[in-house]
Amino acid sequence: MNWAAAAAVASLTMVSPGIGAPPPELALNKAQLLLQAVAPQPAAGFLVEAWADSPDGAYSIGEEVRLFIRGSRDAYYTVLTVGPSGEVLQLYPPADGVPLLVQAGEVLSIPGQDDAVSIRAAYPAGRELIRIVGSLAPLSILPGARGAADLAAAELQAAMLRLPEGLAMTDLYLTTLADAPCRCVGR
Fold first, then answer.
1. Which residues form the DUF4384 domain (predicted)?
2. Going from the N-terminus, what domains does the chain have, and what CATH number goes with each?
3. Which of 11, 99, 142, 168 could disulfide-link to 138, CB 3.0 to 4.6 Å?
4. How far is CA 22 from CA 13, 103, 104, 128, 164, in A?
């Protein structure tokens, strides 16, 4: 996935607020387990909730994905993803973008309505782990984060362990569907 060039993401099963376990039907890969193992102590009273635009959490190959984030405090958000192959990417803020302070209760849409990029489900099919980190100051977890599975996941885990206290996090689990089920849409 690459935010600057129509990022590819998969389908979503929501676990929010807080760090949660994925649905049992799909196992996590090694890189995803490394990230899931890091859950710093959240700040008191600082909660982050996240969801996607698909009510059933499923996305077919090529389908657009939109993520939404809301926090209980004014915060900066960093969104990281570990894909089915273990590839690690930073979805938000974009590598060339400036982090924005999002007001408490305001919903951040990724991508935004006016953004020139989109996020689309793409191969490989399977589970995607999205980690949303809310902070009181902009973070640089993995600047331009992108890379092969084991090395990038280990770097991400190390970066997560170095984060300051006073954060809020939640995880979303996505699953790209290899074969699109029939979806009936009313007129």
1. 59-135
2. 7-177 (2.70.50)
3. 99
4. 8, 29, 27, 10, 26
